[in-house]
Amino acid sequence: MKRAYKLRAYPTRPQEGRAVRLLHDHCGLYNAALAERREAWRMRRVPIRYGDQAAQLKEIRAADPSGQGRHSCTAQQQTLRRLGVTFGAFFRRAKAGHRAGYPRFKPYQRFDQVLFVNGDGAKWEPADSGRWAHATFQAVGRVKVGQHRTVRGRVKTLQLKREYRRWYVIVVAEQIPEALAATGRQVGIDVGVVRFLTTSDGEVVANPRFLDQARVAIAGLERRKTRAESGSGNRKRIRQRLAREWRKVRNQRRDFHHKTARALIDAYEAIALEDLRVPEMTRRPAPRPDGRGGYEPNRARAKAGLNRSILDAGWGQFRSILAAKAESAGRRIVLVNPAWTSIDCHACGARCTRPQQSTVVCSTCGNHDADLNAARNIATRAGLGSGQAPVA
């Protein structure tokens, strides 16, 4: 299995200038490759693929020795592969009948990462005794990296990434999974927005709502930014503060997901989750024409509030983190169909009514907590039992 370590980098001022130039040149390569694909199809109906464009790199590097020729050819291949992956995702969405979204040109300000293969244009030097490691990138130099944890396994790739004014090195290492000790416990989990999750054992994890805590500050900064003159130093400072607030929310949410997932992985051998399609759940409701030139109410405002709460909870990120930790610990994740998990009675299987969000009522068994009922249904559908509470 592969594991990624995101570490803060501290380039010197000259190194930072060279890193910005690196991103600029790779962005130019990406956009040029995209333009070639578009024009080839528009003018001649000829598809251009990664192999066709990678074969041109030797000629491109020879024609521009002080520009593209300065950089690692392997890293440039990764940039072209990145474009190929983007087109692959576009074609998959188009074939599935979804809104495809044709790949777009990237502005230089938003092209923020370049991937290197370790040992070919990049080199990783772990910290021996102190806190500092080093990563060397072709055309950038030897960059100091804060290594707050040990990188285990064989390093495969290094990624230089810019997040506004901060720089990071993402180290991807190949590791052998180390199974945790058996606990004999299995559980079903229901995620939500009022509670972040409820287990079939009855354990509840509250939803911290990090975005709600920061909304007042973010909204105030957004208003100040709209009033600031475009291109002014004041607007630039406000944008920096906005980026800081959003980074804080992301970091808080990710830290919460990691800690919650770690507790579950340590406690249970098998974990069942609903196979939720979050993009479809957070899609904007379609307009409803009334036939007279106007539109009927479609509850878009209420749906926007629900969408914001779902995205703030970060179910997709939590599931990815949980799956990664399960793979590294030899645990098992089971995904089940989410249909009617909250409404069907976990005890007798009858369809319940739901007079309020927190409660379902079974005509035979009486009242149930809706989230606990869903968690036990999820465990039952996955064929799991619990080490603490029996699932009927």
Q: Biggest β-sheet, characterized?
A: 7 strands, mixed, barrel
Q: Any idea what the shape is?
A: globular
Beta-strand residue percentage: 15-25%
Radius of gyration: 25 Å
Mean pLDDT: 93
The percentage helix is: 40-55%
> H/E element string?
EHHHHEEEEEEEEEHHEHEEHHEEEEH
Count all strands and give the number. 17
Question: What gap, in angstroms, lies between the N and C termini?
Answer: 36 Å
Segments where pLDDT lies below 50 for 5+ residues?
386-392
Tell me the number of helical segments per DSSP (H or I, 4 or more residues long). 10
Task: Describe this protein's structure.
The chain has two domains: 2-174, no CATH class; 186-208 and 259-286 and 312-381, Nucleotidyltransferase, domain 5 (2-Layer Sandwich), CATH 3.30.420. The chain contains ten helices and 17 strands. It has helices at 13-44, 50-54, 57-63, 73-95, 210-227, 233-267, 278-281, 300-313, 315-329, 370-381; strands spanning 2-10, 113-118, 121-125, 132-137, 141-146, 154-163, 166-174, 186-191, 195-199, 204-206, 270-274, 288-289, 295-296, 332-336, 353-356, 359-362, 366-369. Helix 1 (13-44) packs across helix 4 (73-95) and helix 6 crosses helix 9. The model is unreliable at 386-392 (pLDDT under 50).
Blueprint of the fold:
Elements: E1 2-10, H1 13-44, H2 50-54, H3 57-63, H4 73-95, E2 113-118, E3 121-125, E4 132-137, E5 141-146, E6 154-163, E7 166-174, E8 186-191, E9 195-199, E10 204-206, H5 210-227, H6 233-267, E11 270-274, H7 278-281, E12 288-289, E13 295-296, H8 300-313, H9 315-329, E14 332-336, E15 353-356, E16 359-362, E17 366-369, H10 370-381
Parallel strand pairs: 2-3, 8-11, 11-14
Antiparallel strand pairs: 1-5, 1-7, 2-6, 3-4, 4-5, 6-7, 8-9, 9-10, 12-13, 15-16, 16-17
Helix pairs in contact: 1-4, 5-6, 6-9
